[in-house]
Specification:
414 residues, alpha/beta, FAD/NAD(P)-binding domain, Polyamine Oxidase, Chain A, domain 2, 2 domains, 7-stranded mixed sheet, 5-stranded parallel sheet, binds flavin-adenine dinucleotide
């Protein structure tokens, strides 16, 4: 069997499946991507509604991700860069904390911000210096503790943790107790220290759309797979497809009959988009709400991020609650007003993303090609194998593709 003869199928056109297809294409292989929904991108989605760009969750591309450099044309995405800072609101008071090494205007504001002690701010500086030097291999080989324990061990005060690290990393890890692995904390902190948080000018879905543009004619949308048995893929519509090599770029438990049905746990998030008369911050910046018992965690203004965009505020709610939609809307509106003196107008859209980030006992950087091979015919990809990030999703897609290529080129034919 050679390049032309191998039937290679990828299930799932999220960024992982797309990275797998691009890797195979670059090596001269043609693939078929099957995607159950009507668009590419999986969890990386933007709803365009009345001229508004409503991303499904506050999601940023850290441009220092090694996979972003490899799989994306960052320039063509026309990225908006977030300021390396946050505006923290506590009981109506505003504090700014930023990376003075990158933007000196934050030096004084950060020093006087009522967020933590001078010692805390010095420690942020030393941690940033340390993690810039620490390699990704070392980060992912360091024994894991929780992020909370890590911050306490590093000597940060309770005030600094509660007022800055907790809301900031809750917005990233999508869990409120900082129980996420310290490896993930170090990785994300490093990416923020050496690069920027960005959003494409057309919204976050521009990322998978750019990747899909390289795969003309290879993606079949609205095609749901029911089961994969050996070299046969059973579609939900009753059809079957023969496939010598299948990459499953989504959790495979429900798709492979004999795989242990361990139900994956997920972190969820709710996003509320409100129209507003507020001007915004005049720059793309993350707002944090650090008042006690607030459900609203982080927010930003879409008009700060997207050019000529209507005035819209996006608020993320991560904490668990029992409120009805209406009560939650009222609560978020009230918190914005009390904590940040921001008046939210009508609710434009509310989104609940139940399966936003996979949870992990232990996080890894990415799979090696060998680790992705499940059986002679079946390979696995997706972020859920390593850590919940665009970086891991893309790298695992690439690893699965490399494993397929190596099987074919080393003559391990099925
Ligand atoms: C709210 C939110 C915020 C996030 N924030 C960030 C962030 O700031 N930075 C960051 O790096 N990452 C972030 N992430 C994580 C990032 O989005 C994911 O790591 C990444 O998108 C996972 O890609 P994937 O291809 O592995 O999985 P998915 O995107 O889930 O793709 C799987 C695809 O498979 C398809 N599929 C599933 N079953 C079938 C089937 N039976 N047949 C056919 N197709 C099927 C699905 O429809 C989907 O398109 C965030 C995610 C969310 C939801």
């Amino acid at each position: 069997m050679n390049k032309e003869q191998s039937q290679i199928t990828i299930i799932g056109a999220g960024v992982s499946g797309l990275a797998a297809a691009i890797t195979l294409k670059n090596a001269g292989y043609k693939t078929q991507l099957l995607e159950q929904s009507s668009s590419v991108g999986g969890r990386v989605k933007t709803t365009l509604q009345d001229g508004l760009k409503l991303d499904h969750g506050f999601q940023v591309l850290l441009d220092a991700y090694p996979a972003a450099q490899e799989f994306l044309n960052l320039e063509a995405l026309n990225l908006t860069t977030f300021s390396p800072a946050s505006v923290v609101f506590i009981d109506g008071k505003k504090h700014e904390i930023g990376d003075a090494q990158r933007d000196f205007k934050f030096a004084w504001k950060t020093l006087i911000a009522g967020i933590g002690s001078l010692g805390d701010k010095w420690k942020v500086f030393t941690l940033s210096r340390k993690l810039k030097e620490k390699s990704l291999t070392d980060i992912f080989n360091t024994p894991e503790i929780t992020t909370l324990q890590y911050l306490q061990d590093y000597g940060f005060s309770e005030k600094m943790i509660q007022r800055f690290f907790k809301p900031f990393y809750t917005g990233i890890f999508l869990e409120t107790e900082l129980q996420t692995s310290s490896r993930m904390f170090e990785f994300v902190f490093k990416m923020f220290s050496i690069g920027n948080a960005t959003i494409p000018a057309a919204g976050i879905q521009a990322i998978p759309q750019q990747m899909a543009a390289q795969l003309h004619g290879q993606i079949k949308l609205n095609t749901s797979v029911q089961e994969v048995v050996g070299d046969t893929i059973h579609l939900s519509n009753g059809e079957t497809i023969q496939s010598d090599y299948t990459i499953i770029a989504t959790p495979a438990e429900g798709l492979i009959p004999n795989l242990p049905q361990i139900e994956k746990q997920w972190h969820s998030v709710q996003i509320l988009y409100f129209d507003t008369d507020e001007h915004g911050f005049d720059q793309p910046i993350i707002g944090l709400i650090a008042g006690e018992n607030c459900l609203s965690n982080n927010f930003h203004f879409l008009n700060d991020v997207f050019e000529n965009h209507a005035k819209v505020i996006s608020v993320s709610v991560v904490a668990k609650h029992q409120l009805t939609d209406k009560k939650l809307e009222e609560r978020v509106r009230q918190e914005l007003e009390e904590q940040a003196h921001i008046k939210a107008g009508d609710l434009i859209k509310s989104m609940e993303i139940k399966k936003a980030l996979p949870t992990f006992e232990s996080v890894q950087y990415a799979m090696t090609p060998t680790e992705t091979q499940l059986t002679q015919n079946i390979f696995l990809a997706g972020d859920q194998l390593s850590n919940g990030s665009l970086n891991a999703a893309m790298l695992n897609g690439k690893a699965a593709a490399q494993a397929v290529i190596s099987n074919i080129e080393n003559g391990i034919f099925v």
